[in-house]
Design a protein that fits this description.
single chain; alpha+beta; four-stranded antiparallel β-sheet; 2 helices
């Protein structure tokens, strides 16, 4: 499976993943949404990914037609 990842235009920490090639209503509406911008495609190749869980994504896509998730990046300073 290949995932299409879209990023919220209003909140850069919010993302939505759908299955590439999915023609169901939820996937079509996500692609057409004026609130989301296409970001990238991610293959489900078994490789670990920062902030993206392909197993959870598959489960949610099967159930809901999409997988919404948030990514928060916090810069940490090294203290000695």
């Amino acid at each position: 499976m290949i995932f299409e990842i879209y990023r919220s235009k209003q909140n850069p920490q919010h993302y939505v993943a759908i299955a590439a090639g999915d023609t169901q209503e939820n996937a079509v509406e996500i692609r057409k949404s004026p609130n989301l911008a296409f970001l990238t495609k991610v293959p489900d190749d078994g490789q670990p990914r920062i902030a993206f869980d392909p197993m959870e994504a598959k489960s949610r896509i099967e159930r809901d037609g999409f997988y919404a998730f948030a990514v928060t990046i916090e810069i940490r300073e090294h203290a000695e």
